[in-house]
Each structure stands twice: as structure tokens, then as C-alpha cells.
Amino acid sequence: MAEFEFIIGDRTYLTELKQEAVTTVIKVDDLEFSFKELSPGHYEATNKGKQFSIAAVKHRGKFLIDIDAMLFEVSESGQEEFGADSSAHAAEKDKVYAPMPGKIVKLLVEVGDRVSEKQPLMIIEAMKMENQVNSPASGIVKAVNASVGEQVDTVSAVIELEIE
Amino acid sequence: MFEKILIANRGEIALRINRACKEMGIATVAIHSTADAEAMHVRLADESVCVGPPAASQSYLNIPAIIAACEVTGADAIHPGYGFLSENALFAERCQKENIKFIGPSPEAIRLMGDKIESRKVAAKAGVPVTPGMAGCAADVDSFRTEAARVGYPVLIKASAGGGGKGMRAVENESELAAAIEAAQREAQNAFGDDRVYLEKKIVNPRHIEFQILADEHGHCIHLFERECSIQRRHQKIIEETPSVALDEKLRRKMGADAVKVAQAAKYSNAGTVEFLLDENGSYYFLEMNTRLQVEHPITEMVTGIDLVAEQIKIAAGEKLGKHLNNISQNGHAIECRIYAEDADNNFMPSIGKLLLYQEPVGDGIRVDSGVAAGSEVTIDYDPIMSKLIVHAHDRQTAIANMIEALKRYNILGVKTCRYFLTKILQHENFAKGRTFTNFIETNMTNMPNSSNGMESYNELAAAAAAMLSSRNSILLYSDIDDLHPSPWQLLGDWSIGSSISG
How far apart are CA A129 and CA B197, in angstroms? Predict the structure, then answer.
């Protein structure tokens, strides 16, 4: 029957649909998982006598899966570029974003400062807590695009670095 | 008894209070900000009043609007819950003036015990041990430097108006002192509108032990045993349990009696909590008194069978402590896990978004106090606590096992939560052995190998299979288009707060 590739992190998994009835059986590597739908998006999975609860939803082109309190983000092969979110910033080490929308309460560096990796750069207040944002890389501060007291989002870089 | 109570809060605690009122036949009024117009606490109350825009300072902290909501709806009492105005003496005073009963202690007791410096004085005067430190607040770095040298590092900088770890900083040596004072002052100013801070000695390797107090307005005061809340991240509790493994009968009696002494010295009434730090030698120090219902109150309810919110309401209505409170005992073991919307892999940064899927665990001894449902939005406007998972069993070992199982069966998609992290704590051998100290997470849970263990790679395979299943599933209930989301009320069904409290 049908085969599909799914990607989690940097690994690709070949999945094979073995049976589709009241219980659906899907094979991944050498393991066969049987699924029974309990409510929309909520399944009971069985593999070799082990039973566990799985929740799955499709959101912005990705599958979000919850198994035993662990979260997985799964892409369909060929669809990896889908669903840009804040983690899309991960590759850009020369730009520093707010991890979530919030207010800048303190900027700890100025343009021209030399910073090392993991050095605190700014403090953002969100949900009543102060969150420290550290430098993703060593380098020189090229630009500071916001000021203390300003509300920032996660889309525009607050600090830009020139990586050494 | 009151006819109508206004609940001046939101989220899970507003629902918890609403339930107690309903069980007592009391009508309820919810207040909400414009951001919460569709929230569960609004839907489940008999009436609701919008008190302002999303910012808490203009809505849930808006005293004139809340008093007006009482007048408009004819509510004769206000339950403040925890957080927001629950420990605001001015608010309690204003209620008194307006002839609305504030369900909590007197403004005088709130003011006295809400000030950490003053409450330390009360405890010391009552003969209860307190940690060494400043007798009053200071603003100049030099006074802090002198006092730190006197009591010895490490020290804590604390906000006098503080609570929940806000405005608190640990300082290991003098070089960190100035920056810590500044950060604590700023956080205190933002959180409490009061930037006064002081210094006390940091007790090394303590446990956090607190005693639940109930006091009526006729001078009677009892305690309902301890809760151990040593498992904390960023100075906020995430797992609480009762009884504590660290207390034997003798120490329990002594600390309980001291907790009652503190409450009586403060002329306290209603529910309150006296917090202590317990060191490894069995010495304990008064930490602070919380003049309100605690987040973790359900574990006390589970082991004592007493409904604390109902008791609060009866006390506020002028009743004496009932006979059923005369012979309370600790029955079994209860654990609570707080379910925050946050990312445990990223320094517990709050996580926001819409709950795409939300499924609570059910079973014997499992209680979920929740403020959300599928479709609920977790926004940056408020504290990221979504719910509390509480498990009650005949002994600690069973309670831990049942909690791990319940966390695994609690499915939440759309925001990140600390559920997996909580299971790792509960599975840790030091937790099993009761070696629970307030530095538990720093000591045991940081620098854990990041590479996936056997369970994680197994689950990853299952996740790939589930993705396949999901992609095959023709019912795209949760599609990419937000408009296709069913409303939380369609999904709600015959929703209720977990299972009922049993003794």
C-alpha cells in the first residue's frame, strides 16, 4: 500500500500504510503501530502489546504530535520549507530576535561592542517575567534596532551582529 | 450567607471558585478583559462584566471598574483568587468601605504580612525562627554590601512587596551584588509598583515547606498540615506534594504550631499559608505568609477532604470554624503538577498560541483544575499557567507512578508545556528517594544529555507513523485555516473541573 516519507529534525522516516479499517496499521522501520481513533486527533496506539496515547494535528503544513508528553514536529518529505515560524530564525546567527513578543526592559550592549557567544544581550519582559536573551554567536554589534521600553515582535531582528 | 459572589480573577482559579460557589448555591459574577471575552471563566459564571482592555493593570487590577461591577450586578462579596488583587490591602479596604465582603483577611493583616520585612518582625516576635538579614529595606549598594558581609554569601535580594520569585535574585559573591539589586528593583517595580528590596541570608539546600492555615473571625485558628513545594524553576513552584517526606510527627507538630502562632500574631482570618525553609539539619525558618488561597491548595484538599474555597466563603460570611475541622488527618499522598505554557528546552520561556488539541486525563484520584479548552488562546497578557494536574493515591510511590501516567495521557498541542520535563523529574531517582530541595532542577535536571534516549527515538518512530495517519485522515478538523476551528464551546461537551474532591 501507500508509502510516504516524513521528516523529524534531521532524520527521514519511511512510513508504510499496512491496513486501514477500524484500526489503522502503519509500519515505520521495522515497527508496526496500530491506531484506534478515540476522538478527532486523539488516538490510542499499540505496538507489541505496549499501549499509549497519541495526539496529532496538522497545523501550518506541519504535523504536531504529542506522545507520552513529548512533542514532535513532523514535515512531509518535500514540504520541509512549509510553515515558517520562529525557529526559521535558527540558522541566522547574525540576527537576534525576541523569543516572543514582549517589552524590552534593558539593552546590555551598544553598537560597536564586542560580544561572545552566550553573552547576555537584552532583557525582555513578557508574561510578567523578565527573560534574558543571549548572543547566538561571537562578534561585533552592528545594529540595535529597538530601544528600552519598546514593544517588539519575533519577526524583526532586535540586534544584528557581525560574526567574526 | 452571600447571595452573589464576584470572582475577581481569570483562568483555572476563577473556575475553581465558580465551582465552589455553585456547590454552595451562590450565584457568580465573572469579570474579564476584552481579551478574555470568550474565556471559559466568563462562560461558566452566571453573569459577566467587562472591566477593561487586555493589560491586567487596566482590567483585572482595575479597582474602580471591579467595584462598579459589584454594584451593577449586586454582588455582596468578592473572591480575589490568587495573584492580581488578592494581596492588595487597598483593594480589601475599598471593599470594606463599599460594604462588599472581601473573601480573605482584613486589610490590616494583608498589609502587615504582605510586607516581607514587617512579617519577619511579626514571626520573630511570636518566637518563630527567621533567616538572618536586614531589619529594613535599603536603596544604597553599600548597605547591602555590609549586610552581605555580615551574614555571609550566598545571599538573596528580595522585594519587600514580593512573591512568586518576582523581584528576587540570588547573589553568590560581591561582584554580582549591584546588578542583582538593580534587576530585583526593576522587576519589583514592574510587578508590584514598589521597588523596595532587602537582603537576607540564602539558606543552602533547603526544602520549601508550607502550612495551610484556616482562621475564623472569632479568634480560632487551625492548620491543615504541610505541603512540600521544593521543586521550583525560576523560583516558582512546579511540583507540590503532601505529606512531606522530610517531616516526622514531632517536627510536623512543631512547625504546625509555629504556623498557627504566626497567623494569630498577625490577627489573621480566612485561609492563609505560612511558608518555611527547612534545612538539612531539621532547622526551619519563617519565609513569608501568603494572605490568600495558594495555587497548590488542591493537594491539601485531596488529603484532608476539606474544600478550602468553601471554608473561605463560610469564614468570610462570619461562621465559626466547623466541627468537621476538629479532627482532620492526612489521608494518603497527593501531588500537583502545574501545567504552564512554556518551553522547558528553552529556559522555560513562555509559549503562546491557540490550543489546537486539548485532552485531559481521567481516572481514579485524578483531578484537573483547568482554565482552558481546545480553541483557547494563551496570550502574552497574563501568567502562563493553564491548569493544574492533581493526583491522589494511598502512598507516595503510587501517587508518583499515577502522576507520570496522567501526564503522558494529558495531550496538549498548540503551545509547548513542561509535561515531559515534569515526567523526567518524577522519574528521577532523587525524587523517588525524597531528596527534594529547592535547587533540585539546577542540580539534577540541567546538563542532561540532549541526545535522544531509547524512549525518545522509539517515540519518534511512533510520531512519524502518527503523521502518516494524520495525513491520511480525511477529517481535517484542525486544518491550516483558523476559521475552521470548532469553537471551544462546541468541543466543551459536558465539561466540569476534573473529578470531585474526595476524602
Answer: 17
Active site residue B292: yes
CB B200 within 8 A of CB B157: no
Confidence category of residue B449, pLDDT binned at 50, 70, 90: low
Summarize pLDDT for B409-430 with one digit per residue, the tens. Answer: 999 999 999 999 999 999 999 9
Instruction: Write out pLDDT tens, residues B298-334.
Output: 999 999 999 999 999 999 999 999 999 999 999 999 9
Is residue B474 scored above 80 in pLDDT? no
Task: Quote the pLDDT of residue A90.
Answer: 53
DSSP-based three-state secondary structure for B100: coil
pLDDT, one tens digit per residue, over B354-368 is: 999 999 999 999 999
Tell me which chain A residues have a C-beta less than 8 angstroms from the C-beta of B359: 39, 42, 53, 55
CATH 1.10.10.10 is held by the domain A88-163? no
> Would you tell me which residues 178-217 of chain B have a C-beta closer than 8 angstroms to some C-beta of chain A?
183, 186-187, 190-191
Contact yes or no for A58 and B471 at CB 8 A? yes
Q: Which residues contact B431 (CB under 8 A, 6 or more apart)?
A: B231, B400, B425, B440, B444
The architecture CATH gives domain B132-201: 2-Layer Sandwich (3.30)
Q: Which residues pair with A132 in a beta bridge?
A: A123
Percent of chain B whose predicted confidence (pLDDT) is above 70 = 92
| pLDDT, average across residues B40-59 | 96
What Å distances lie between residue B342 and A102, B330, B379, B414, CA to CA? 15, 33, 12, 11
Q: Which of B166, B359, B472 sits opposite A17 (nearest CB)?
A: B472
Q: Is the CA virtual torsion B194, B146, B132, B262 positive or negative?
A: negative
What DSSP state is assigned to residue B133? B
CA nearest neighbour of B16 among B472, B336, B345, B267? B336
User: How does residue A117 score in pLDDT terms, banded at 50, 70 and 90?
Assistant: confident
Q: Where are the domains of chain A?
A: 3-76, 88-163
Phi and psi (nearest 5°) for B256? -60, -45
Return the residue in A10, A15, A148 with the most chain B beta carbons within 10 A, the one to mutate for interface testing.
Answer: A15
- CA nearest to A66 within chain B: B411
* Interchain CB contact of B397 with A (< 8 Å): no
A106 burial (CB, 10 Å; 0-12 / 13-18 / 19+) is middle
Task: Please give the pLDDT value at position B162.
Answer: 75
- β-pair partners for B358: B412
Write down the pLDDT at residue B160. 87
Query: Domain ranges in chain B?
Result: 4-103, 105-130+204-331, 132-201, 332-456+488-503, 457-484
- Provide, as residue numbers in chain B, all residues whose Cβ is less than 8 Å from the Cβ of A3: none
Nearest to A66 among B191, B413, B468 (CB): B413
Task: Provide the 10 A C-beta neighbour count for residue B130.
Answer: 17
Interface contact flag, B475 A39, Cβ < 8 Å: no
Q: Do B464 and A53 make contact, defined as CB atoms within 8 angstroms? A: no
Mean residue pLDDT across chain B: 91
